[in-house]
Specification:
The chain has helices spanning 6-14, 47-61; strands spanning 20-21, 24-25. The chain is elongated, with a radius of gyration of 14 Å. A two-stranded antiparallel ribbon has the order 1-2. It is built from two helices and two strands.
Length: 73
């Protein structure tokens, strides 16, 4: 299931914004790679899952600060 709302990305594409998923450019919103856009980009879940993801980012990448947006956009 795709958790990313296409409405916002249609707007981004209309501005000419280039988006990459798994190192490949998205051609349009019907691109099969679009289903993987949220992967390693968004942390969405219950408190335990989110905590584990923050720890993973800290341990694997050394990230110590996060900027959170609770509602998109």
């Amino acid at each position: 299931m795709n958790i990313v709302n296409n409405k916002y990305y249609k707007f981004y594409f209309s501005l000419g914004v280039k988006m990459y998923v798994r190192g490949k450019p998205l051609k349009d919103l019907d691109d099969p790679l679009f289903d993987y856009l949220a992967e390693d980009r968004f942390i969405i879940g219950d408190s335990y899952y989110c905590y584990d993801e923050f720890v993973r980012y800290k341990e694997q990448l050394g990230i110590k600060h996060f900027i959170l947006r609770m509602v998109f956009p």
